[in-house]
Amino acid sequence: MPDKLLYRVPEVAEYLSISRSKVYELFKSGELRSVHIDRTRLVRLAPTAPVQR
User: Is 11 inside a domain boundary?
Assistant: First the structure.
């Protein structure tokens, strides 16, 4: 799925294999961040970087 920079909530839910309501719960808890463009909530899905120790 990393073809685009920003994804809509249904796309994020499908990618993460969770419900749309769970995506909104993640927004509320702060575990997932989003931006609003007009009335659309968009999420940036970035690949995770390896942790250096």
Answer: yes
